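Workshop exercise sheet. Pairs work together: one partner reads the sequence aloud, the other fills in the structure field after running the prediction. Swap roles for the next sheet.
Pair: D.N. / O.F.
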Amino acid sequence: MKIIITGGAGFIGSNAAHRHLRRGDHVVVVDNLSREGTRKNLDWLRSIGHLDFVQVDIRESGDVANCFREHADADRVLHLAAQVAVTTSVTSPREDFEVNALGSLNVLEAMRLARMNAPVIYSSTNKVYGEMNDIGTVEANGRYAYKSLPFGVSEERNLDFHSPYGCSKGAADQYFIDYHRIFGLRTIVFRQSCIYGHRQFGAEDQGWVAWFMIASQLGRSVTVYGDGKQVRDLLFIDDLLDAYDLAFASSSGCGGQVYNIGGGPTNVLSLLELLAYIEGRRSRKMGFEFSDWRPGDQRVFVSDIRRAQLQLGWAPRIRCGQGLDLLYDWISGNKTLFVESATLIA
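Structure field:
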């Protein structure tokens, strides 16, 4: 099997590439290597199996078209390349649009012009639902929770893009759905919640679970935006990869479909609870300070994952506590990867 993975040297992409390489698949990694850790991830992948690396920026339509034309025989496409930080989108909205919206359109057009029949999964985000201020929340046991959504937010929820990041990812989300309707591409959209796990080079503006753990082990303090009581459903990387596998296997029946993919109601955590977990592992207090809420930040987001359970036969296997232990131990065992990081030691 041959798979193209855009953003294949990033956190999710390198884990997906690793899984396919271990199976003996031919993996084509498309990445511009702009994010922290991507070169380390690429070096790691090159030692595993049949890997082709194409250094392409998805904003360059001609380069993207040439890449997909050369690999038009691919059996699967996983589109992960993105600008991933809300804060960056606020300071550089044009760059955010060009990467997330225009870059995704370039991928769709490249597939259409190459007449590719491969199913393609797009990694969207829960941010397409906006702040959801109309949904009542309560504070209980030191965290926020929904008043009346016991299963979380479903795919039927109206879209309400907040922040340039929400707009750019949401635009691409809708383009992927429409390219199935208009052009027959076998597109599948995953609106992903908080993904965490091995090889996540988290930073302050993205990847908060990994960032808090990395900072604690390097003796760095962190900033908690908001009051720390905001809650997310967490999904360990291996469970996300299982969902990709099942969606690809079911692609003949789920083209044009959208799935909310996250940990669901049984795998939720607040920022303050993560800090308490880290302090328990380290047996010492962690330095942190509070700052203002970020634009469009949701007090609660929990995915209703019942559609994926029903249509794909998927459910998370790794519970939140187990996943946190796995990530904490991986960071502890690979601390030199982060000590050498220019971003983290700045």
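Discussion prompt: The longest strand covers residues 26-31. What would you look at next?
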